[in-house]
């Protein structure tokens, strides 16, 4: 200890303190501050870049799921459209069928009516023709019969009977 | 670390013992004692500060001791400011005459003497007439200046590169991981995320300063700064002052009125804690000083052994040992810088620690 105290040099201590404190102050201004700030800025930059990369990744994932959703929606829409189209098609077909049926029915009904009226007309004509024929025949018969007065009378009688019956 | 210091001192002790043993064995050789004394003197001289920057010395063919180096200015205050070149002191051998006063350097200190340069001793065998107001630019002061300049140029240059881009260039690439290490593994864990920034300039400066100056001590230039108690005191004092002046209420409360213990204990603990605030930086001072001093003594002694053995087996073994120790000292140079920084951060952390309910 005695040796230590004896060896102690106040001048060296003085210069040491002076130079060292000066060195700390100068280095703080010209070296440590800019260096540490640059390192911090760089670290913040790296951290920011990593964060934004992570964010971008998440966004990508979101986008992907969005795409998937859109695709699914489109698929569902297509499906429903197809279904609708199919329904419309079948409805149209059945409608057409029904209409055709109705039309056919109508045509058939009309035809039946026409046939009926034609039949009636034909029957009427037949009746007329039968009447005229029968008249002719009658005329010829009458002409023949009238040569005999008895027969004439009898004929009239018979005719009258027949007429009432008819 | 105390253990390490202890190991060091123990190895020094062992060495000194073995040194004396070999001294007894080899006394028959003429001049071997002279060699040993010379080595001893050389080591003790190396550990001391000196007034001139002396790289090495040798005896020329005329038997005169030649010094290779350059003189430095001596600045003293003794009846007025006196400045003169250390070449006047002639490596402790001459007497410098300045304004009618005579000065002589002896073991790295300056004394006022008579014209003949005779030193008078007191009863403790200390020379009298020491000049205390000695502000000379000694070898250590000069080295501190050079290292400070070097550190300043190194890091201000590194800072310039950051203005151009986010990545360091050149040597800065090697330095940045160390800066990051000090920030992430020393400052932030010990001081805390919120307050560490305030201490970063000091922690970084002290780490690089101690490390580089320790490394310079391992070069063959014979520079030895951190084994000087005045230097380590300076560093420890700054740590102490920073701790004391930035401490918060919580820190002083823990020192003077320890919460959570009964009041008689508080009274007993207060002086102990108060003493602790001084012992902490004191241990910083002693640790750095003792480790570097011990390292230098052991290393130089083993190098000296090579010359004492003077046979191929002993000398080559000494060489191997010196080589291994040099590698160890390389580690110690960084380790001591790390420990000084780490413990300073720890003390700062205690000073600014926020109040916890757990106490």
From TrEMBL, chain A:
Top-level taxon: Bacteria
GO cellular component, one term: plasma membrane
Entry membrane topology: Single-pass membrane protein
Main subcellular location: membrane
Pfam families: ATP-synt_B
Listed GO MF terms: proton-transporting ATP synthase activity, rotational mechanism; proton-transporting ATPase activity, rotational mechanism
Cell membrane in keyword set: yes
Transmembrane segments: 12-32
Alphabetized UniProt keyword annotations: ATP synthesis, Cell membrane, CF(0), Coiled coil, Hydrogen ion transport, Ion transport, Membrane, Transmembrane, Transmembrane helix, Transport
CDD domains (alphabetical): ATP-synt_Fo_b
Annotated coiled-coil segments of the chain: 53-91
Cell location: Cell membrane; Endomembrane system
Subunit structure: F-type ATPases have 2 components, F(1) - the catalytic core - and F(0) - the membrane proton channel. F(1) has five subunits: alpha(3), beta(3), gamma(1), delta(1), epsilon(1). F(0) has three main subunits: a(1), b(2) and c(10-14). The alpha and beta chains form an alternating ring which encloses part of the gamma chain. F(1) is attached to F(0) by a central stalk formed by the gamma and epsilon chains, while a peripheral stalk is formed by the delta and b chains.
Family: Belongs to the ATPase B chain family.
Function of the protein: F(1)F(0) ATP synthase produces ATP from ADP in the presence of a proton or sodium gradient. F-type ATPases consist of two structural domains, F(1) containing the extramembraneous catalytic core and F(0) containing the membrane proton channel, linked together by a central stalk and a peripheral stalk. During catalysis, ATP synthesis in the catalytic domain of F(1) is coupled via a rotary mechanism of the central stalk subunits to proton translocation.
The name this protein goes by in its record: ATP synthase subunit b
Species this chain originates from: Ulvibacter litoralis
From TrEMBL, chain B:
Swiss-Prot/TrEMBL keywords: ATP synthesis, Cell membrane, CF(0), Hydrogen ion transport, Ion transport, Membrane, Signal, Transmembrane, Transmembrane helix, Transport
Signal peptide (UniProt feature, chain positions): 1-23
Transmembrane segments: 141-159, 202-223, 229-248, 288-309, 315-340
Record GO terms (molecular function): proton-transporting ATP synthase activity, rotational mechanism
Topology of this chain in the membrane: Multi-pass membrane protein
Subcellular locations according to the entry: Cell membrane; Membrane
Family: Belongs to the ATPase A chain family.
Function: Key component of the proton channel; it plays a direct role in the translocation of protons across the membrane.
Protein name listed in UniProt: ATP synthase subunit a
């Amino acid at each position: 200890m005695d040796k230590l105290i004896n060896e102690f040099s106040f001048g060296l201590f003085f210069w040491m303190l002076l130079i060292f404190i000066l060195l700390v102050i100068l280095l703080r201004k010209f070296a440590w501050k800019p260096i540490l700030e640059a390192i911090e800025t760089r670290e913040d930059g790296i951290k920011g870049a990593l964060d934004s990369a992570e964010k971008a990744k998440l966004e990508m994932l979101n986008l992907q799921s969005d795409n998937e959703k859109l695709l699914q929606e489109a698929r569902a829409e297509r499906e429903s459209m197809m279904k609708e189209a199919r329904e419309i098609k079948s409805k149209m077909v059945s409608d057409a069928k029904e209409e055709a049926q109705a039309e056919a029915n109508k045509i058939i009904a009309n035809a039946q009516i026409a046939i009926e009226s034609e039949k009636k007309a034909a029957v009427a004509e037949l009746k007329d023709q039968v009447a005229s024929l029968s008249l002719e025949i009658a005329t010829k018969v009458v002409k023949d019969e009238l040569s005999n007065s008895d027969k004439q009378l009898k004929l009239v009688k018979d005719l009258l009977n027949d007429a009432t019956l008819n | 670390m105390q253990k390490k210091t202890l190991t060091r001192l123990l190895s020094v002790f062992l060495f000194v013992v073995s040194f004396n043993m070999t001294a007894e064995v080899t006394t028959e050789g003429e001049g071997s004692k002279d060699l040993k004394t010379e080595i001893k003197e050389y080591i003790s001289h190396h550990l001391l500060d000196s007034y001139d920057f002396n790289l090495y010395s040798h005896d020329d063919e005329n038997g005169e001791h030649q010094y290779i180096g350059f003189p430095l200015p001596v600045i003293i205050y003794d009846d007025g400011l006196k400045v003169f070149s250390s070449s006047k002191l002639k490596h402790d051998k001459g007497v410098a005459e300045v304004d009618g006063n005579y000065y002589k350097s002896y073991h790295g200190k300056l004394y006022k003497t008579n014209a003949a340069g005779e030193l008078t001793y007191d009863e403790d065998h200390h020379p009298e007439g020491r000049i205390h107001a000695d502000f000379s630019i000694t070898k250590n002061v000069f080295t501190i200046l050079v290292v400070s300049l070097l550190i300043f140029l190194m890091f201000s240059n590194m800072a310039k590169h950051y203005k151009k881009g986010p990545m360091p260039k050149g040597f800065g690439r090697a330095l940045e991981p160390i800066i990051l290490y000090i920030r992430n593994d020393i400052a932030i864990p010990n001081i805390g995320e919120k307050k560490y920034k305030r201490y970063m300039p000091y922690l970084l400066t002290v780490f690089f300063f101690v490390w580089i100056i320790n490394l310079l001590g391992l070069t063959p230039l014979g520079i030895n700064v951190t084994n000087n108690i005045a230097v380590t005191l300076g560093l420890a004092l700054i740590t102490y002052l920073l701790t004391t002046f930035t401490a918060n209420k919580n820190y002083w409360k823990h020192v003077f009125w320890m919460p959570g213990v009964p009041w008689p204990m508080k009274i007993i603990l207060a002086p102990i804690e108060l003493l602790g605030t001084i012992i902490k930086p004191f241990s910083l001072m002693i640790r750095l000083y003792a480790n570097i001093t011990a390292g230098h003594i052991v290393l130089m002694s083993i190098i000296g052994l090579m010359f004492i053995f003077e046979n191929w087996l002993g000398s080559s073994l000494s060489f191997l040992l010196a080589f291994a120790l040099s590698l160890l000292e390389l580690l110690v140079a960084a380790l001591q810088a790390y420990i000084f920084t780490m413990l300073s951060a720890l003390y700062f952390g205690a000073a600014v620690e926020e109040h916890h309910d757990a106490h």
